[in-house]
Write a structure and sequence with these properties.
Mean pLDDT: 78
Number of domains: 4
Protein name: histidine kinase
Strand content: 15-25%
Organism: Desulfosarcina widdelii
Helix content: 40-55%
Subcellular location: Membrane
Structural class: alpha+beta
GO molecular function, one term: phosphorelay sensor kinase activity
Largest sheet: 5 strands, antiparallel
InterPro entries: HAMP_dom, HATPase_C_sf, HATPase_dom, His_kinase_dom, HisK_dim/P_dom, HisK_dim/P_sf, PAS, PAS-like_dom_sf
Length: 625
């Protein structure tokens, strides 16, 4: 049973934490507002007191200077000014009379933000004798503001800390601990212990929740027991199957997952159930189309030899979809059978016979290998260039030899040399094409179907066979007369060209060997027919060899059955050919033969490939006559 993971303690929000944070924040805001108000009030009050003190000093300073200025006692005036300036509060002084300035330390434009600027008249009796200006520093106000702010912040911090810690301890005791015990009990129930009864707490509202949870746990325990019995029964049934069995609903969600499915996908049933089949088993992502088709048509569907790649290795599987009864919840059961080993054995058999065929062709291409062939074609091309009148170098060399290029070309034309060189080049290209066809035929190919013209494919196989000279049997395919009876209206078929070509070559080689072993009065010949027969493409290959009796004819398609001597054949050629036609291409292959009257192979192929369609019955060995 799936359960959600608990929320991390570092990220989750709790009631106790939210209440603690809320109360602490509210306390901090209230004290911050009060502190701000007090800071403004206290600062303004101290500023007014400072300005009043500055005014008193200015009045006193003007009064003290009256007598020395009246007596023109400059030294005394300066001493008085210096005495007042020794204070940190008074920063600058200017003393002026009607005649001159005795003392001046005030800047031209004092900043109001930094200074208190006061001006006083100096009077002796009723007579005005001068003026004085004083600048008082505001640094004392700034110091007062700083001390006040620090005190307020410290008070707010301490009060908030005390309230926060107290609230935290209170909430932890009254709220957090009961909820933690409740959560721990719920997690125990969620883990599968449905018989657990959660104890009641002191708070009535929490007890209501606990009672409902206990009732729910008992009900879940009862239902879980019933479901477990049913699940075990179904699991024993599906796990006993050797195939992968996956049950899906119409939307593709997994409803059943057997042991083989777990083995192939690496995902157990607990994690697979409820997930989309394409997410837990990507190999079956395309199977949903078949599931919907099977449900709609109410019949099983089968896909044979479905390929997939795993770590570079090609795997083959047969997939069968069985729709569920419409009276149930719907959906289908997907069965997957791994047939990789069977397919690989089949491919090995096909490739083995193909290699035997290529071995027979080796003598025919002994002197047609690529390196000397490339040298011949390259030198012919160089000779053609050396005899061309388009190159100035050719004219220069010809004149040094006492001839002209037109004369050389006239001679060459008279002796048909250009035609000979062109013939050599054409023959070289043809030989290169032969080598290319034979090498491409011998390579192992993937199962890729293409649209092919059977007449062209049959003629290409004949060209391959014409280069086959068997050193043991001493037969030469080029000495066999070929009769072609092709119907031009036969449509193309979808097939694996290399495998169909292998079938044709096996039949042609067997016929050539049979005719070479029993030379008669009639020259050996083969009749090739391509026509339509009962809506299918029909290929017939008939020879005039010795034929075969009924006993041999009945076993001709059996693996490893051969009438040849040891070392000449493996007995796999015709059995592999039969498998290629019937299993890989959904066709039929029959043989008709009578001793002394030759042999005729008849192959029927569907116009459109049906190798991947579900065959309700497997092809049976043909009836031969």
């Amino acid at each position: 049973m799936k359960h959600s993971k608990p929320v991390s303690r570092r990220t989750r929000r709790t009631i106790a934490r939210d209440l603690t944070l809320g109360l602490t924040l509210m306390t901090a805001l209230v004290f911050s507002a009060f502190g701000a108000f007090y800071q403004v009030y206290y600062t303004n009050r101290e500023a007014k007191n400072l300005e009043s003190e500055a005014a008193d000093i200015a009045d006193e300073f003007a009064e003290v200077l009256a007598r020395p200025l009246w007596n023109l006692d400059v030294d005394t005036v300066k001493q008085i000014a210096k005495a007042y300036l020794s204070s940190d509060f008074l920063s600058a002084v200017r003393i002026e009379t009607n005649l001159e300035a005795y003392f001046d330390t005030i800047p031209e434009q004092p900043q109001k933000e930094r200074w208190i600027h006061l001006k006083r008249d100096i009077v002796s009796g009723d007579e005005h004798i001068g003026t004085t200006e004083l600048l008082f520093s505001r640094e004392r106000i700034q110091a007062i503001q700083k001390r006040s702010l620090i005190s307020i912040l410290a008070t707010i911090f301490l009060v908030t800390l005390v309230i926060g810690l107290g609230t935290h301890l209170l909430m932890k005791r009254m709220v957090a601990k009961p909820l933690d015990r409740l959560i721990a009990g719920i997690r125990t129930i969620a883990a599968g212990d449905y018989q657990l009864a959660l104890p009641l707490e002191k708070q009535s509202d929490i007890n209501t929740i606990i009672s409902e949870i206990n009732i729910m746990a008992r009900e879940i325990d009862r239902r879980e027991t019933d479901l477990k019995k049913l699940r075990e029964t179904l699991k024993n049934i599906v796990d006993s199957m050797p195939s992968v069995l996956v049950g899906v609903d119409p939307e593709g969600r997994v409803t059943q997952w057997n042991r083989e499915a777990q083995k192939h996908s690496g995902i157990d049933a607990e994690h697979a159930l409820g997930c989309h089949v394409g997410d837990v088993y990507p190999f079956l992502a395309e199977a949903m189309g078949w599931v919907k088709q099977a449900i709609a048509e109410r019949r099983p569907l089968k896909e044979s030899k479905v390929t997939t790649r795993s770590k570079g290795d090609v795997r083959y599987s047969d997939i069968t979809v069985y729709p569920l009864d419409s009276g149930s919840t719907g959906g289908a059961v997907i069965r997957v059978d791994d047939v990789t080993e069977r397919v690989r054995i089949e491919e090995m058999m096909v490739q083995s016979e193909k290699m035997l065929s290529v071995g027979g062709l080796a003598a025919g291409m002994a002197h047609e290998i690529n390196n000397p062939l490339a040298g011949i074609m390259q030198n012919i091309q160089v000779m053609q260039n050396r005899l061309s009148s388009d190159l100035p170098k050719n004219h220069e060399v010809a004149e040094r030899c006492g001839v002209t290029m037109p004369a050389i070309q006239a001679y060459m034309q008279g002796r048909s040399m250009p035609q000979m060189m062109a013939m050599i080049m054409e023959s070289g290209k043809r030989a290169a094409k032969i080598v290319e066809n034979m090498l491409s035929f011998s390579r192992k190919s993937e199962a890729v179907t293409t649209s092919c013209d059977l007449t062209q494919l049959l003629d290409a196989t004949v060209e391959l066979a014409e280069n086959d000279y068997d050193l043991k049997k001493k037969y030469d395919f080029r000495k066999i007369e070929i009769v072609r009876e092709y119907d031009s209206k036969v449509p193309k078929v979808s097939c694996e060209a290399s495998k169909i070509q292998q079938v044709f070559l096996n039949i042609l080689s067997n016929g050539a060997q049979a005719m070479a072993e029993n030379p008669g009065q009639t020259a050996p010949h083969l009749v090739l027919r391509v026509k339509m027969d009962d809506g299918q493409a029909c290929v017939e290959i008939e020879d005039n060899g010795p034929g075969m009796d009924a006993a041999v004819r009945k076993r001709i398609f059996e693996p490893f059955f051969t009438t040849k001597s040891v070392g000449v054949g493996t007995g796999l050629g015709l059995s592999v050919s039969y498998f290629i036609i019937t299993e890989n291409h959904g066709g039929t292959m029959n043989v008709f033969s009578t001793p002394g009257a030759g042999t005729r192979f008849v192959i029927h192929l569907p116009v459109e490939n049906t190798a991947n369609e579900n065959l309700t019955e497997q092809s049976l060995p043909p009836t031969t006559t």
